[in-house]
C-alpha cells in the first residue's frame, strides 16, 4: 500500500458514502490537532475510471486539511477494491474513530453487520453450518453481543422513526425505543380486543335495561353513557379495562342538586368513586382530576388521591382561561383565570404519548352549556396524550359529555356516567351530534 502526497483538489467524494453529517465543532478540534501535530494517519484513496481519485476513508481529515488551507495531504493508494471492501473500510474506520453521532453510530453498525451477512450468509440459531452472526459483529467491533444486538435494534427503530436521530445520546434513544415498543404493544392489545362482540367491546357487563339507558352509536369504537350514579354501576365495568380517567367531580357548587353545597359531600363522593374505579383501571393508566383551587392548595385533594392508593405526579395540569373576567374585588385578589387538574396514575405510570406543557390555553366555543364545561380542545389533548386509538376513557361525572365527544372524535372508546336526567339528555345530544 503506497503512501504519497496528493493534491486536495484531485480527491473526489462519492455521493453514496455512509457519512452524511459532520459536526462543525469536531472539525474545528480536528483541524487544530492537525495544525499542531500534523497528519498522523494518512487518508485512503483509490483510482476510479478515467484515473480519477476517490476517497475511501478519512473524510473528516480531508475536510480539516481544507479548513487549514493545505494544498496536499498524505494518502494511501488502494487498488482493485470492490464495493464490499470499500464500504467495510469506511464503516470500520468511522466506528473505530468514535466521531459519529449516536444515530450515525448505530446505523453504521447495522450496515456493517449487513454487508458481512451479504458476503458470508447469516448464521442460523443453534446451527454449526457457519455464516455471520451478531457475535461476529460484536467481536469485530470489540463490544459485547448484547450491546451489538441493542444497537442493531436502535438502527431499525431509527429507520422507522427518523426523528430519533435528533436525540443526543444512546440512552435517550433506548428510552424512546422502549416507549415506542410499549405503544405498539398497547395498539396490538386494542386490535385483539376489537374482535370481541359489540356490546363487550366496551367491557361493560350486561345490565338490566330498565335500570340503565345506553347510547350505542353504530361504530366499532363506541361511546356509552349510563344514566346512573357511578357508585351503583361501576361494578358492571370489567376490571383492568379502562386506560384513562378524566373527570371533574361535583365539589362545593350550587348547580349540583344532588351533592349539594357541603364540600365534605363532594370530597367523600370523589373518594368513594376513586376507590371503586381503581381495579377497573389498567396498570399505569393516566388520570386527570379537575378540582377546586382551594382544595389543591390545602393539600386536600392530594391527600385524598394518595389515600385511595394512586401515584400522584409532582406537576399539575392547568387550563388557562384568558377571557375570564376579573372578580368584583380585582385589587383584593388575583384573577382566577385558570383551573387546575391533579395528574396521577394507577400504579407506575405509562409514558405520555408526547411531551406537553403544564399550562394550556383553551376556550369553550359557542354558548357554555354546563357550568363546569371544559373546552373540547383541552379534553382532546388530555385523551390524545394519554391513550392510543381504540383505548377506553372513563368520566364518572360527565356533565355535558365533553370527554365522550373528544373520545369519539379521536377514535377512542368511552364510558360516561351522569346521574341527573337533564345533564344526561344534554350529553346524549352532544354525542349524537358527533355522528351527524
From TrEMBL:
InterPro entries: Chromosome_partition/occlusion, DNA_methylase_N4/N6, ParB/RepB/Spo0J, ParB/Sulfiredoxin_sf, ParB_N, RM_Methyltransferase, SAM-dependent_MTases_sf. Residues 74-101 form a coiled coil. The keyword Transmembrane helix does not apply. Gene3D superfamilies: Conserved hypothetical protein from pyrococcus furiosus pfu- 392566-001, ParB domain, Vaccinia Virus protein VP39. Keywords: Coiled coil, Methyltransferase, Transferase. SUPFAM superfamilies: ParB/Sulfiredoxin (SSF110849), S-adenosyl-L-methionine-dependent methyltransferases (SSF53335). The keyword Cytoplasm does not apply. NCBIfam families: parB_part. This is Putative methyltransferase. It comes from viral metagenome.
Amino acid at each position: 500500500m503506497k503512501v504519497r502526497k496528493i493534491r486536495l483538489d484531485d480527491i473526489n467524494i462519492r455521493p453514496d458514502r455512509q457519512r452524511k453529517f459532520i459536526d462543525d465543532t469536531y472539525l474545528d478540534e480536528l483541524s487544530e490537532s492537525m495544525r499542531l501535530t500534523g497528519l498522523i494517519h494518512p487518508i485512503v484513496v483509490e483510482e476510479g475510471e478515467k484515473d480519477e481519485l476517490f476517497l475511501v476513508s478519512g473524510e473528516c481529515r480531508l475536510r480539516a486539511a481544507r479548513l487549514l488551507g493545505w494544498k496536499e495531504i498524505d494518502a494511501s493508494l488502494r487498488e482493485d477494491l470492490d464495493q464490499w471492501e470499500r464500504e467495510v473500510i469506511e464503516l470500520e474506520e468511522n466506528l473505530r474513530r468514535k466521531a459519529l453521532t449516536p444515530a450515525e453510530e448505530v446505523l453504521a453498525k447495522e450496515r456493517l453487520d449487513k454487508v458481512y451477512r451479504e458476503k458470508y450468509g447469516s448464521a442460523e440459531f443453534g446451527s454449526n453450518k457457519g455464516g455471520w452472526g451478531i457475535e461476529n459483529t460484536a467481536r469485530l467491533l470489540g463490544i459485547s453481543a448484547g450491546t451489538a444486538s441493542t444497537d442493531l435494534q436502535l438502527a431499525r427503530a431509527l429507520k422507522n422513526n427518523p426523528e430519533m436521530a435528533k436525540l443526543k445520546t444512546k440512552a435517550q434513544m433506548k428510552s424512546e425505543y422502549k416507549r415506542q415498543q410499549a405503544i405498539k404493544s398497547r395498539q396490538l392489545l386494542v386490535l385483539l380486543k376489537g374482535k370481541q362482540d359489540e356490546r363487550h367491546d366496551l367491557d361493560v357487563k350486561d345490565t338490566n335495561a330498565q335500570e340503565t339507558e345506553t347510547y350505542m352509536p353504530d361504530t366499532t369504537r363506541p361511546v356509552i353513557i349510563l344514566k346512573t350514579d357511578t357508585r351503583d354501576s361501576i361494578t358492571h365495568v370489567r376490571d383492568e379495562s379502562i386506560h384513562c380517567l378524566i373527570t371533574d367531580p361535583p365539589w362545593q357548587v350550587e348547580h349540583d342538586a344532588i351533592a349539594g353545597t357541603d364540600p365534605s359531600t363532594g370530597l367523600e363522593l370523589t373518594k368513594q368513586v376513586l376507590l371503586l374505579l381503581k381495579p377497573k383501571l389498567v396498570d399505569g393508566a393516566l388520570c386527570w382530576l379537575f378540582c377546586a383551587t382551594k382544595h389543591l392548595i390545602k393539600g386536600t385533594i392530594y391527600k385524598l388521591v394518595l389515600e385511595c392508593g394512586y401515584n400522584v405526579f409532582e406537576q399539575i395540569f392547568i387550563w388557562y382561561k384568558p377571557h375570564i373576567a376579573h372578580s368584583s374585588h380585582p385589587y383584593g385578589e388575583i384573577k382566577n383565570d385558570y383551573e387546575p387538574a391533579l395528574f396521577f396514575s394507577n400504579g407506575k405510570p405509562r409514558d405520555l404519548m408526547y411531551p406537553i406543557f403544564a399550562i394550556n390555553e383553551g376556550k369553550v366555543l359557542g354558548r357554555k352549556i354546563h357550568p363546569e364545561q371544559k373546552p373540547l380542545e383541552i379534553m382532546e389533548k388530555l385523551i390524545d396524550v394519554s391513550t392510543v386509538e381504540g383505548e377506553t376513557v372513563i368520566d364518572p361525572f360527565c356533565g355535558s359529555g365533553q370527554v365522550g365527544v373528544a373520545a369519539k372524535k379521536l377514535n377512542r372508546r368511552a364510558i360516561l356516567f351522569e346521574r341527573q336526567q337533564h345533564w344526561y339528555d344534554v350529553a346524549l345530544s352532544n354525542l349524537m351530534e358527533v355522528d351527524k
